[in-house]
Amino acid sequence: MKLSPREAEGYFAKPDAGRTGLLIYGGDAMRVALKRQQVIAALLGPNGEEEMRLTRMAGGDLRKDPAQLVDAIKAVGFFPGPRVTFVEDCPELSSPAVLAALEDWEPGDAQIVVTAGQLKATSKLRKGFEAHPNAYAVGIYDDPPSRAEIERMLAQAGIRDVPPEPMSVLANLARELGPGDFTQTLEKLALYKLNDAAPLNLEDITDCAPRSTEAGLDDLLNVVAEGKMDAVGPLLRRLQAQGTNATGLCIAATRHFRTLYACASDPGGPGQGINRLRPPVYGPRRDRILGQAQTWGARRLETALTVLTDTDLALRSAGQSAPQMPLVERAMIRLAMLSRSR
Fold first, then answer.
1. For the chain, which domains are there?
2. Residue 52, phi-psi category: left (phi > 0), alpha (psi -120 to 50), beta (remainder)
3. Which spans of this chain does the record mark as coiled coil (predicted)?
4. Cis check: omega of the bond before 210, within 30 degrees of 0
5. How many Cα atoms within 13 Å fall on the side-chain side of residue 286?
6. pLDDT for position 213
7. To which H or E segment does residue 265 belong?
8. What are the pLDDT digits (tens) for 283-310?
9. Distance in angstroms (rounded) separating the CA atoms of residues 167 and 133
């Protein structure tokens, strides 16, 4: 049987131990692995692997020895409780062995959990699980986790008191990060909040969120917008060493100053303009953007955008011979000087 994404979320949390098997497939190996970990942990409990109720095998090995899967699901363990035979990264060529095990399965046998990459609708492995009356097939897509899924992950990490604003920030973070990085961030938050009964706040998230190239880019844009000329050069060198190119810097700066202009040019003032931003901004970043928009004003921001447009055109010009990074550095210093003028 085929499970929809909404049905799958509930099933992963509370799987049926009496099912024959479960196929989890998708193009993102990390997302598939996280779901597989969740469902196996829910089936076996915290001590399942220690009690040897979990058998692992590589999907590619089934081509040489197809009988090993049937032997594994029939084997009787020493410890009582549900058992799982996990087939990892199963290729299409191993599907006959898996489908044969599905047919041989009887109540009391170990449940078969199979993971695979992206499978076409014509895949024999996928069609076998979807057509089986007592097995499930679930496709995992590159969608960010839903709010309910984030709440489950927070509860699993031991974080339960999360006000609406930090929850919105976590939802935005889940869209920006990969599934593995987001899971690690929640684990870091759990350790950070250990023995701390206070509700989760924005500062906690800021302290635990990964420090990436984007964070360094934000640092540069903020010092430019706040007129800190002495910090422009060192930050540019750091970003250049990380592999950031001149065109990317110019695009990011244009995006930042357009955000400021959208706030400053709002008929109701920057305070109303920042409320109209999509996606919304929260916490310290919101206060910083609002302060920058109020300091610059719409007229000077128009001038700043003209400087950035001219720089972008120069960078993309076919006849451009000057070094690109110095062009961007000169534009950033001009903007920093402009922010201090009245």
1. 5-139 (3.40.50.300), 147-208 (no CATH), 213-340 (1.20.272.10)
2. left
3. none
4. no
5. 16
6. 43
7. none
8. 777 888 888 888 888 888 999 999 999 8
9. 39
Tokens representing residue 18 in the block: 């009496």
State both tokens at 248.
């990317």
CB atoms within 10 A of CB 197: 6
Mean pLDDT confidence for 40-67: 91
Residue ranges with strand state E in 35-186: 54-58, 84-88, 111-116, 135-139
CB 130: neighbour CB atoms within 10 A?
Answer: 16
Q: What is the pLDDT of residue 91?
A: 93
End-to-end CA distance of the chain, in Å?
Answer: 68
pLDDT of 195 over the 90 cut: no
DSSP category for residue 110: P
As a whole number of angstroms, the distance between CA 85 and CA 276 comes to 52
**Residue 264 tokens, joined:** 């400053």
Residue found under tokens 């930090």: 166
Q: Give the number of other CB atoms < 10 A from CB of residue 228.
A: 14
Euclidean distance between CA atoms 85 and 106, whole angstroms: 14
* Contact call for residues 114 and 22 (beta carbons, < 8 A): yes
Which residue from 202, 204, 239 is spatially nearest to 218, judged by alpha carbons?
Answer: 239
Between β-strands 135-139 and 54-58, what pairing exists: parallel, antiparallel or unpaired?
unpaired
- Asked if pLDDT for residue 70 goes beyond 80, the answer is yes
Each residue's pLDDT tens digit, 95-107: 999 999 999 999 9
C-alpha atoms less than 13 angstroms from C-alpha of 249 in its C-beta half-sphere: 30
pLDDT at 124 over 90: yes
| For helices 213-225 and 283-316, angle between their N-to-C axes, nearest 10 degrees | 90
60 CB-near residues (< 8 Å, 6+ apart): 89, 91, 94
